UniProtKB/TrEMBL annotation:
Stretches of the chain forming a coiled coil according to its record: none
Species of provenance: Bacillus glycinifermentans
A cellular component annotation (GO) from this entry: plasma membrane
PANTHER family, A to Z: ENTEROBACTIN EXPORTER ENTS, INTEGRAL MEMBRANE EFFLUX PROTEIN-RELATED
UniProt xrefs under CDD domains: MFS_MefA_like
Taxonomy, superkingdom: Bacteria
Keyword Cell cycle recorded: no
Membrane disposition: Multi-pass membrane protein
Transmembrane intervals: 20-38, 44-64, 76-97, 172-189, 226-244, 264-282, 289-306, 312-332, 353-376, 382-402
Protein name from the UniProt record: MFS transporter
Amino acid sequence: MIENNGVWQRNFSFLFCSKMVKIIADSLSFNTILWFLIQSGKGAVGTAFLIAVSFLPQAILGPIITPLMKTTTLKFWMFFSDLTRASIMLVIPICYFNGFSPLWFIIFLMLVHSATGASYDPASVSLIPKIMKRDLIQKANATIQSSGEVIRLIALTIGGVLIAVFGAAYTMFIILPLYIMSACLVLFIKYKIKETVSNTTTLTKPKGTYIKKLRRGFLLVRQHNILFPLALFCVFSNFASAPWEAISAVYISEDLNGDSIVHSFLKVTTAIGAFLLGYILAKVNVNRYGLLLVTAGIVEGAAFFVAGLFSILPLVFLAAFALGATVSAVNIPEHTIIQMSVNDEDQPQVYAIINMISYVMIPLGALISGYVSTIFGSGKVIAFGGIIEVIAGIFILLFTSLGKAKRSDLITEKEQSLKV
């Protein structure tokens, strides 16, 4: 149900509010559990396991869960995802106050917490084309992306205060109603299934067994002239930026003689970069999303190269700003390309597959960079990651159609995807 020509219509407002509340809850929950493990004496082993299970299950389980989704049930997947996370925020403190909080139990619950993201994120991205006109899809994505960065930064600050005042266990009781609020808001979203290009039922609604649907998702990505090079670039981009994420704190400490305050300011700079570019994309219409995505990656890679090669603090802040801007310059076009070039029923799975392919490279790149940095130094490893991203971007622009694709090409690809 699309009500008017502005982005702030009823359905989008409910989706936006749900996403913002969820971002607050997610940020608070991760930091609360992190400090809960530290205060409970679980130490570095506990925090390492937390980071692992907070990331990988969501990326890996996405393609497995999304074939079960239907266009008519997207908001219910989001609803039950939030309710599951709310339940976890209730179970952990209750068990803790009753003297039961072993590491394996907390890690298992956080694994479930992460796994629910495998349904929420693909569903929320796929929901936007159902409630927004095609010309407003980019603006909707950019509004959520830029606002989310500001909300996330605020949540991190508030979380630190709450944990310091009430303690980690009691803070979880504050997070509980936030997840419930996010879950309830999506239930107010109402929309009708829009007709696709073909009136044939077999084309508009792919039928078949679970295995056939799972295989279809991978085939769509592989045969898509725009999404396949996009996925390839995201693989190299995430692998190249992993050294920055993993060892920038070490680089600041050892090479620049900085401290935790400098590192915190870097995080703020990254958030500012993401917000500013997201805000710009909410105001400006883009015709070549792929060109924007790859160009931003090349600029980011160049910033990493300069910051790693020359140990000068302003250059490091420049790299942090470039990283944040690239987050928006990649996520917004990526979401918009999927929403405009893939059939409605296939969007959740395609989104999950691209996420899995590209995001798995982050922990791999982090592990490799951590080891290599002990031999060559943190700065050189960060600079080498930048070179990889620049070369990958140039290759994608020269030898694929990603940088040349226009809006009209996305519509053509959507028609072709129905025939897969």
